[in-house]
Amino acid sequence: MTTSTSPGPKGTVPEPPPVNVTPPFGEGGRGAKDGLRAVADAVRARYGEDAILTDRQQLRTYECDGLAAYRVVPGLVVFARDTEQIAAANRACHEHGVPFVARGSGTGLSGGALPHAEGVLLVTAQMREVLAVRAEDERAVVQPGVINLAVTGAAAPHGYYFAPDPSSQQVCSIGGNVAENSGGAHCLKYGFTTNHVLAVEFVTPQGEVERLGTMAPDAPGYDLLGTVVGSEGTLGVVTEATVRLVRKPEAVRTLLAGFETTDAAGAATSAIIGAGVLPAAIEIMDGLAMEAAEAAVHVQYPAGAGAVLIVEVDGPAAEVEAEFAQAVRLCEESGAIAIQVAADDTERALIWKGRKSAFAAVGRISPDYIVQDGVIPRTALSEVLREMKRLADEAGVRVANVFHAGDGNLHPLVLFDGGRQGETERAEEVSAQILALCLAHGGSITGEHGVGSDKAKHMPKMFTAEDLDTMQLVRCAFDPGGLANPGKIFPTPRLCGERPGRGTGPHPLQQAGVAEVF
Ligand SMILES: Cc1cc2nc3c(=O)[nH]c(=O)nc-3n(C[C@H](O)[C@H](O)[C@H](O)COP(=O)(O)OP(=O)(O)OC[C@H]3O[C@@H](n4cnc5c(N)ncnc54)[C@H](O)[C@@H]3O)c2cc1C
To answer: Which atom number of ligand 1 is nearest to the Cα of residue 112?
Structure first.
């Protein structure tokens, strides 16, 4: 792996290390098709015909992830079965200058697994083995295609579970979770995926197999594992993950409190956290989100509520009883009009089913919707929600809100009817204005869904050119050829080793309009 020089202070980004740029699609007159054919031959020779997909109709199955607004039919699909196969595919891609995109379950909501038309889509869905559960070490070792909930399934007989719980946990893969640093309702107390990944096996864009991290915490040296987690497949492919298991708590109590407004639910959130209670999760759903979830899973939300707050407290039984009583009291003092306490696991599961199905359920109350993802400081919740409503009213669209209130991670769902003249554009405009609102309040353009294809254009609103150059230095240290998931995260593809205003003329790729220097 190439190493990077450490970046200097802001504004004085050092020159990227000189590297040999392997332009995508091969050099010396070989075209994209030749490169793809060579990769297909290399994989087919070792793993057989059913390890690849070349038929255009079948390739269409993989043309998008969970963000179906972006679609690209991949040049070739490789069904990965083991690490060596991914290494062989990456080596062939490297040799022939072919871009590649890793894909887990394809549930990403930022177009991160959007294929490259002249590249390889490496699908890890068949790498679904839980390799080890080591309860005594509180660790599990899993292949990248293992479904999030399957880790908990394997750990449960030992009294453990996997804490990061994206709402898509029944279908999304650990490889995707690692690449997106995914979060979920219970990440407020337990931390995001990055806090639960101790080591990975990782195949570089050159096809080398590396191990990053160890079973022991806090290895010396640069935190390359931390760099890979959340890198959205732009540094290489995760082929195995060692994850932390968390002991099942002795007690869990869950309540659902109805409030007249989201403001009041937000005030209750601040009161609970301000009182020093750290619930496992605090989630808010507004009236529209409740309407959608009710239609799908019949939770029977409190009548007259304009918002509900879900509070879950877990831990040692005595502590849970005290904290839960405190949470109930604070909800009442903040104006709760009804409080339902889950009597057992079935009632708790129903509360969570309503919350976790809210995104998909919105399809029941609107023909089209955009799922937005931004973060704000929790204290700005009321103001941002009010401003969001004003923007939506002005544009004549509706916004449903369901969010991780405890850590200020918003998921506004902008509802619209694409069949109505101009409504799609207005919804997109509101969606972009919501991100601007998050930034204006000191927040971020994404909380957990990643940048992918969708938000690359927003990166310069949050980062300076120097910031982005520094990130490029990191990417180029791993992937000097720019072959790993190109076109994601960065607003414009750039060639490693090139700096604005330098060089002896445009690179052939620039002349071909394939890449540009920024
Ligand atoms: C209904 C719904 C609810 C959701 N709720 C949440 C939520 O609560 N929290 C949350 O964080 N997200 C949520 N998501 C988004 C999504 O499920 C997560 O981002 C998830 O981690 C993606 O996993 P995946 O296996 O589907 O990855 P994919 O969509 O296949 O890929 C996502 C990214 O990871 C990269 N990647 C995949 N596998 C690898 C690998 N082995 N090595 C390197 N890179 C890889 C891809 O290139 C891509 O950039 C939700 C999505 C849906 C549809």
So the answer is: 49
